[in-house]
Amino acid sequence: MADFYEFYPLRAHNTFGFDARARLAAHIRSESDLVSALSDPRAAGMPVVVLGGGSNVVLTGDLDACVLLMEIPGYDIAEDGADWLVTAGAGENWHNLVSRTVADGRAGLENLALIPGTAGAAPIQNIGAYGVELRDRFARLRAYDRQAREFVTLDLDACAFGYRDSLFKREGRDRYIITAVTLRLPKDWQPVLNYGELARELQDIASPSAAQVRDAVIAIRSRKLPDPAQIGNAGSFFKNPVVESVQRDALLAEHPALVSYPQPDGRYKLAAGWLIDQCGFKGLDDGPVGVYGKQALVLVHHGGGTGAALLKLANRIADTVQARFGVRIEPEPVIL
Ligand SMILES: Cc1cc2nc3c(=O)[nH]c(=O)nc-3n(C[C@H](O)[C@H](O)[C@H](O)COP(=O)(O)OP(=O)(O)OC[C@H]3O[C@@H](n4cnc5c(N)ncnc54)[C@H](O)[C@@H]3O)c2cc1C
Fold first, then answer.
1. For residue 182, how many other CB atoms are within 10 A of its CB?
2. Measured from the CB, is residue 172 less than 6 Å from ligand 1?
3. Which residue, by CA, sits nearest to atom 14 of ligand 1?
4. Which residue minimizes the CA distance to atom 15 of ligand 1?
5. Tell me, which fold does domain 4-70 have in CATH?
6. To test ligand 1's pocket by mutation, which of 11, 16, 56 has the most ligand atoms within 8 angstroms of CB?
7. What are the phi and psi torsion angles at 123 (to 5°)?
8. 3-state secondary structure 188-230
9. 181 CA from centroid of ligand 1 (Å)
10. How far away, in angstroms, is 54 Cα from ligand 1 center?
11. Does the beta carbon of 228 lie inside 6 Å of ligand 1?
12. Whether residue 244 lies in the annotated active site
C-alpha cells in the first residue's frame, strides 16, 4: 500500500508558489513506490498528475487527482566507447546533477546549469539553454508505461524531441512516468559557445573549461532571471514562435529591430520577449501577478495571487502580441 496524504498542500511544490491542494499525494522514492501508488485502490479512477520540482507548471486550483511527487534518487556512471553514460534517478535535482558531472570531470551539461527542476522532467520539454538542448546529450530513459503496464526503455528517436517539445507533450502525454534518465557525455569534449552572450562572457578565456562555462552560464542567468525562492516564476512563460520566412520578412520590413533566428528548416524563430516588450508589458504589475522588469518573457507571482489570475494576464499579453504582430505566442509551462 502506498503512503498517501489527503488534501496535500502543493505551495512548496510549484515555483510560482500558488496555493493548491492535491486530493491525494504520494512521495515516490523508488520504482516499487510508483507501481504500488498506481495500483492502490484509493487512487482508482482518479486522474494521475506527476510532479517533479514544479518549475514548469501553473496550478490553477486544487487538483482532484492523485499527485505523484517524483523523488527517485540515483547517480551512476558507465563507459560506452568514446562517451560517458551518466544515469540519474528521476528525482535528482537537475542543477546538482550538472554540477556533479562537471566536478567528476564529465563535461557536456554545463550550458544547462541552473535550470530548476528534476532530471526526470528534463526530457518532457527537451530543456535547453545557451546553445545546448537535452537531446544533444541524451542516450535513453526508463519509464513506466501506464498503457502497457510495464517499464520500458526509450531511446533518442523514440522520444521525438523538438524545440521545447517531445513525445511526452504529444501522443505520450499521461502515458509515461520517467524513473531514470541516461545522458551521453563525450570524453572528447569541446565547449559549445555559439550563443553570443555566453561567448562574450568568456571572451577573455582562450579555452574555457566546463567549470568556467558553467560559472559563466550561472552568472548570466543570475543577472537575468528571478530566483524562484525570492519571486514566484516558471522561467520563460512563452515559447519563441516559429514562423515562415515570408512572414518574418514582412514583419522585419515593418519592424526593422525585430529579433529573429534562422532555423535549419528555413523558418525563423522570433524572440517572444522582444514582441512582448514592444507591447509595453515589461515590468507591468497586475496586482499579485505581473511581468518581470528585467525580462518580458518571465511572468511573476509576488504572493497572494492565483494561477487563474496569471493565466488571464498571459492571455491578455498573447492577444495583444497577436493583434500587433499577427503571431500567436503559446505558454511553455503545463497548465494544471
Ligand atoms: C527560473 C527558471 C528558469 C528556467 N529556465 C529554463 C531554461 O533555461 N530552459 C528550459 O528548458 N526550461 C527552463 N525552465 C523550466 C523548467 O525548469 C524545466 O522545464 C524543468 O525541466 C521542469 O522540471 P520540474 O521537475 O520542475 O518539472 P515539473 O514542473 O514538476 O513538471 C513539468 C511537466 O513534466 C511532467 N513531469 C515531471 N516529472 C516527470 C516524470 N518523472 N515523468 C513524467 N512526467 C514528468 C509534469 O507532469 C509536467 O507536465 C525554467 C524554470 C524556472 C523557474
1. 19
2. no
3. 235
4. 56
5. 3.30.43
6. 56
7. -70, -20
8. CCCCCCCCHHHHHHCCCCCCCCHHHHHHHHHHHHHHHCCCCCC
9. 14
10. 7
11. yes
12. no
Ranges in the chain annotated CATH 3.30.465.10: 75-223
The per-residue DSSP string of 116-181 comes to: -SBGGGTTTTT-EETTEEGGGGEEEEEEEETTTTEEEEEEHHHHT-BTTB-GGGTTTTTTEEEEEE
CB of 120 closer than 6 angstroms to any ligand 1 atom? yes
Find out whether the beta carbon of 68 lies less than 6 Å from any atom of ligand 1: no
Boundaries of CATH 3.90.78.10 in the chain?
227-335
- Mean pLDDT per 10-residue section of the chain, whose length is 336 residues: 90 97 97 96 94 97 97 97 98 98 97 98 97 97 97 98 95 97 97 93 95 97 94 96 97 95 92 96 95 96 96 98 97 95
Please name the residue whose Cα sits nearest to atom 21 of ligand 1.
122
Cell output for 253: 520590413
C-alpha cell at 175: 502515458
206 phi, psi to nearest 5 deg: -65, -55
14 lines ligand 1 (CB under 6 A): no
Instruction: Please provide the CATH number assigned to the domain covering 227-335.
Output: 3.90.78.10
Angle at 232 between CA 291 and CA 170, to 5 degrees: 85
How far apart are the CA of 245 and the centre of ligand 1, in A? Answer: 30
User: pLDDT tens for residues 128-150?
Assistant: 999 999 999 999 999 999 999 99
- Does 142 qualify as catalytic in the annotation? no
Q: CATH 3.30.43.10 region(s) of the chain?
A: 4-70
Protein fold of 75-223 = 3.30.465
